[in-house]
Amino acid sequence: MASTALFFILIFYILMLIPCLGVGWIGYKLITRLGRYPSKTPAIQVGIMLKLIIVEVVSLTLILLMFKILVAE
User: Whole-model pTM?
Assistant: First the structure.
């Protein structure tokens, strides 16, 4: 039973690490672009928003898929 819980925690940790790294990378690019073009702040933020929505949808889909696979019916 303990190995099953450890396996579940490990999978969940990996699935949470992927979107965190993605958001960090997108944030780094956002800060870099805002530093270069401060007058274009709204346009840069709107461009980043779509990428963040994609990361969020993909991460939630992966978590739901994990639960669907691991839940015994």
Answer: 0.77
Tell me the two tokens of residue 60: 């939630």
- Given a contact cutoff of 8 angstroms between Cβ atoms, the answer to whether 44 and 33 are in contact is yes
**Whole-angstrom distance, CA of residue 47 vs CA of residue 37:** 14
Distance between CA atoms of residues 39 and 62, nearest Å: 37
User: Which is more confident, 58 or 72?
Assistant: 58
Question: For residue 13, which amino acid is it?
Answer: Y
Which residue, among 22, 31, 21, has the nearest Cα to 51 in the 3D structure? 22
Three-class DSSP category at 66: helix
What is the C-alpha separation between 15 and 57, in angstroms, rounded? 13
Residue that has been written with the tokens 């396996």 in this structure:
7
